[in-house]
Amino acid sequence: xxxxxxxxxxxxxxxxxxxxxxxxxxxxxxxxxxxxxxxxxxxxxxxxxxxxxxxxxxxxxxxxxxxxxxxxxxxxxxxxxxxxxxxxxxxxxxxxxxxxxxxxxxxxxxxxxxxxxxxxxxxxxxxxxxxxxxxxxxxxxxxxxxxxxxxxxxxxxxxxxxxxxxxxxxxxxxxxxxxxxxxxxxxxxxxxxxxxxxxxxxxxxxxxxxxxxxxxxxxxxxxxxxxxxxxxxxxxxxxxxxxxxxxxxxxxxxxxxxxxxxxxxxxxxxxxxxxxxxxxxxxxxxxxxxxxxxxxxxxxxxxxxxxxxxxxxxxxxxxxxxxxxxxxxxxxxxxxxxxxxxxxxxxxxxxxxxxxxxxxxxxxxxxxxxxxxxxxxxxxxxxxxxxxxxxxxxxxxxxxxxxxxxxxxxxxxxxxxxxxxxxxxxxxxxxxxxx
Length: 435
Prior knowledge:
Elements: H1 2-7, H2 54-59, E1 65-70, E2 83-94, E3 100-110, E4 120-126, H3 148-156, E5 160-164, H4 181-199, E6 203-212, H5 214-224, E7 233-240, H6 246-258, H7 267-280, H8 293-299, H9 312-319, H10 322-325, H11 332-335, H12 337-345, E8 357-362, H13 370-382, E9 387-392, H14 400-416
Parallel strand pairs: 4-5, 4-6, 6-7, 7-8, 8-9
Antiparallel strand pairs: 1-2, 2-3, 3-5
Helix pairs in contact: 4-5
């Protein structure tokens, strides 16, 4: 049970299976629709996720809708009770190198009318770790990544929601660059712009980046790159247990391994980090730059990239058992300064965010250690951000989302009402109010 709880790393453990999938509603006036794609009969293949011609992607503007597809679901479903429109979207964003890429996600619009002529304020949701392969995208799952109850809560509160799958998740033939801060942040910011492009004036220019774990990391990246959502007004980032300080965390994991401790339950995540480095620069970072030879061999298999978070630990236990294969390359930290430098470049707080920041952390989190998040808050303050921080005693990595929802709602209402955000940073920090 402990391994399963850790392995979800941000895929919220809510009972959403019975909630259904979504509903196709009437198109909002003024929204231009891209070509519709349907599943190929008898194959189980959904042509929506076919990667488009790269020349077309390169010509598209950031956030431009390349393709959309209604998400079917019974009107009696939980999600169906709250949405006027639910659809998968494919839009243009960029990878870690700045290369234009097609990314997928989903867009949900509330049933209740907007409170004013500005339209529904928008949450650009950033999900926790799901995997590396196309099939691990939340938009491909009936429960939308296990988040249906929280999504419905936001819809009922009058927010539109857009969710990026992140580059490499969703479209066929791709591999996700795990924890690539720039790419994930851009995909979250460009998803907000895509929501506005798809939903028209019914979707407000005002938007938040909200994420959990890997998604907290991505949401912080989105705040630093919020200007990429041109014409939108960014109101702030809310990061639940955000991933940070990868180099330090991996060094600590290596020390634990060398001292005979077990990394069971975290091996899949560590393998994903090694794969993410390889996706960024295959020549500089072969799989065995970070991972043990046996784990590296398995992660180099294309089929293994399709194993999602609920499968990867069990696979490694069978084909690269910890007791004989280990997990990490013992000398990586000492002999791979380029890898250390690259990992450090993935830490949030690279520059000042375009809006205030809320960080929420469970004190009993065994996946994202509270001390690492406290250090991150200090680094965010050093970048002259306005940072509010909430901690929850006895709350673990999965539970922090539910524990912090009320505080999140209060904080977002404050931003929408243009009240001055509180900050834990030293006096003298300048507010980074939404622009």
